[in-house]
Amino acid sequence: MSTQRARNLRSNMTDAERALWQRIRRRQVEGRKFRRQFPLGNYIVDFICLEAGLVIEVDGGQHLERAYDVRRTAWLEAQGFKVIRFWNNEVLKEMNAVLEAIRMELAPPP
User: Where along the chain do its domains lie?
Assistant: First the structure.
């Protein structure tokens, strides 16, 4: 994927993506660095924490066609990434629950 396309996506984030970015940027969650609209292989992921190998996807109605997302997630997992997904409305209406789910993924195993 082109770097230019990733830049365009960064400039045109959805309201949910923008809201989540404001809460995870600048190492606000567990001191981890996140990047947004990050090119990875043939894909651009919404958010990624490279050090934790965690990809966060924020999905809207366009993701009701699941076959593409299934292939994409399988590829990302084959590269060693853990993928978690949230719907736009979850991010906008249940931000604390979303952030807690992200924290749980970043926490070291017991």
Answer: 3-104
- Give me the tens of pLDDT residue by residue for the chain, a chain 110 residues long: 467 877 777 778 999 999 999 999 999 999 999 999 999 999 999 999 999 999 999 988 765 567 888 899 999 999 999 999 999 999 999 999 999 999 999 987 77
- Tell me which fold the domain 3-104 belongs to: Endonuclease; Chain A (3.40.960)
What is the reported pTM? Answer: 0.90
CA distance 68 to 63: 8
Contact 45, 20 (CB under 8 A): no
Is the alpha carbon torsion for 33, 102, 63, 83 positive or negative?
positive
Could you write out the DSSP letters of every residue in 42-76?
A: TEEEEEEETTTTEEEEEE-GGGG-HHHHHHHHHHH
Angstrom distance (rounded) from CA 52 to CA 102: 11
47-68 burial: b if 16+ Cβ within 10 Å, else e: bbbeebebbbbbbeeeeeeeee
